[in-house]
Amino acid sequence: QEKSCHLSAALLGEDSEISQDQLYELLKYAALGKCHNAAQPSWCRIYHQSHLAGVVVVVLQEMSQLHFYRFYLQFKHLRRVFQHRFTLAPSANFPVSLYGEGTNLKPQNTPQGLTSTSSECISKSSDLQCDPIIQRYGGKKQGLTSYTLTLEEQKENDYPIEGSPGCKGYISTECDQQRTDSSPLFGLDCEMCLTAKGNEVTRVSLVDARGQCLLNELVKPQSPVLNYRTRFSGITRKMLLPVKTRLSDIQTRLKKMLPHDAVLVGHSLNSDLQALEMIHPSVIDTSLLFARNEGRRFKLKFLAKAVLGKEIQCEQKLGHDPTEDARAALELAQFFIEQGPTKVAELNLEMLLTAEKLAEVSQNKAALQPQGCGFQEQLNEPPPLSKPCFLDCLQVTGQKPLLLGRQELDPSGLCQSNLSTSNKQILQRALEDVPLSKFSIIQFSLGPEYLASHLHAGLYEKVRSKLTDMLTIYAGPFEENFCMKSVKKEFGRCGPIQSLTVVTETFQPYVCIQYEVLEAAQLAVESLNGAEVAGSCIKVQRPVTAAMLDCNVLIKELELDVENEGVIYVAGLKKSLTETDLQEEFSQFKDLETLFLPKDLQSGKHRNCCFLKFQKTQSAVDALEAINGWTMKGSELRSRNALAPGHLWRWIWQMNHNNGKQGKHVFYEKMEQLSDCEQDLRKKVKKLDHQIKKLYRSLQNNTLCIVLFPGVNSTHGSQSGLGLMGIKDDEGRSAC
């Protein structure tokens, strides 16, 4: 039976803003896969990439996130089909940023982790037999149990063992050795400081098989610290001062978190387990997995770059990030298991390490030269090789990608490029040609008359104005001398308040409250309308304007948005609660996948609300029922279904805080310019949505489809882009 591909991406909050490089990373892996040394993207995961039928990128020229949410109701197909959505850094010319201006057709010496042809990997199969990885594991792919350390190997490498003299008082995770090739992997890494007792753990990170952080906690050592080793650990005295968590707390938490057949992955994991004073029977040590001769070991930083194409432990950062290190070790083990020893041996890591050291020596020599020396040599040197563009990378598959659009998209001539004069023509060509191509870029446009900068400015003002109205509620009437503190406290239980003012134009006082999140305003309308607050029975309503007449329709559609499936909003949290506290409190709920705790983007402080994403919709429904009215640490919680997808948090916050920065005359001028063509624009957007729907329905199952609003980056201003993505399944929806 053919395996179906699926996509995993926990895109909530700040993590949902994706750069052009990260998008490039996804497209490269989708098109090339691990057989061409492309690494899994760092921000999402494609399962069974080799079964992808193709990749289709739809680019909506010069459109931004602003267009999607201004015409949200018109984009009916897009919002109901694509499971994953992300904010995209704007680009002045998106197609060029995707595959580069001009392309070098000559073979390039590309670094591992980007791309290389099989002839650039190590040479002859006879040489592979001498590789320590092949000698240790053989050449065939095996399951993960073949790579876990035996009891003897653990003893040889100073792992804590049950009953060993040096492990008295150590805590066992109580996991058994009944592991299978389907057992779950967990990445673990600790940072240590030198104390009077020796090396004591001061920070612990644990990530699951998808790379999601389950634990990232500072730990107070038992003995006085002699050396914080800040350069490596990143720990300072100031960081540990308020910490109350002790080693015993971490031990208890890890025991609860790890299932009975858990396999821990780490780099020199023995040091971490010794510092944690814990015993665990099933481990994969990446410092031993990527075997070298004579007992030497590769550093994690080198392996991450050479195998995964990722930079970790950067010198610009203060100390190592244990979550980053745990995730890197986990991905290295997954790469080894999925690719097998032969593919890993073909990377020729020893030769790469030698080349890297030679490069470092060369750089150091150059740095030691007196100022001005070697200038003439630099003039005679050839220019450095540019980073290979996307089309260069696709050449290794022997394919020519398909580009369709109204303008000249590919200056290099590496693609099958067809120019059309209308979206209708582009769609017709796409329906014919896309099934014949493994990688296609289809560019649609609303037309030049709708791309003027003043129209973008007008759209921004309309979206910001409507958003402000949706975040605002009016409550009252109150008695003359009502207690404002009571009102603020009651309405604050619905979520973070941006502003609260008394309306004086009415006979009796009313209060105008503007929230920071849509869910808080809706929760206030639903739960406090008709309630008694500050001694008065009040009415709660949104402002009544022409733009707000379809507010209830919009709220209903936002609730049904495919990206909000399984996501609930929880308010009334005490600000003293940390993310770890909340993870612990909510861990009782079944199928909880992600917790997002919003922060004020200026102060960095947590708000009094959070979002919970569940793997199954029914689990979210059950949690919603249980949480409403639930008391946590003396505070009553309120909850409802999420309205604004996670990637909107930062955007809404910025719009809120940019309110009123432009003069009224500018605002009305832009409104007039836009109103003349907006009705026509709605029709065009609706038609465009239908054309994308038609194209999407024609795609084969297991096709990765990404729709991009590239954003606007010009002298007139910048607007973030938006990406929607999914892998088409049998039901015509995108598989998550």
Mean pLDDT: 82
Protein structure class: alpha/beta
- The number of distinct helices, counting runs of at least 4 residues, comes to 27
3D shape:
globular
Please state the second-level CATH architecture of one domain.
Answer: 3-Layer(aba) Sandwich
Report on this structure.
- With 736 residues, the chain is of the alpha/beta class.
- Among the domains are: 6-99 and 389-449 and 678-728, Alkaline Phosphatase, subunit A; 142-339, Nucleotidyltransferase, domain 5 (2-Layer Sandwich); 565-642, RRM (RNA recognition motif) domain (Alpha-Beta Plaits, 2-Layer Sandwich), CATH 3.30.70.330.
- Helices cover 36% and strands 20% of the residues.
- The chain is built from 27 helices and 33 strands.
- The strands form 9 sheets. Strands 2, 4, 5, 14, 15, 16, 29, 32 and 33 form a 9-stranded mixed β-sheet that branches. Strands 7, 8, 9, 10, 11 and 13 form a 6-stranded mixed β-sheet that branches. A 4-stranded antiparallel β-sheet has the order 18-19-17-22.
- A hairpin with a 2-residue loop joins strand 7 and strand 8 (198-207).
- The protein is globular and about 85 Å long.
- The two termini are 20 Å apart.
- Residues 100-124, 370-388, 409-414 and 660-673 have low confidence and may be disordered.
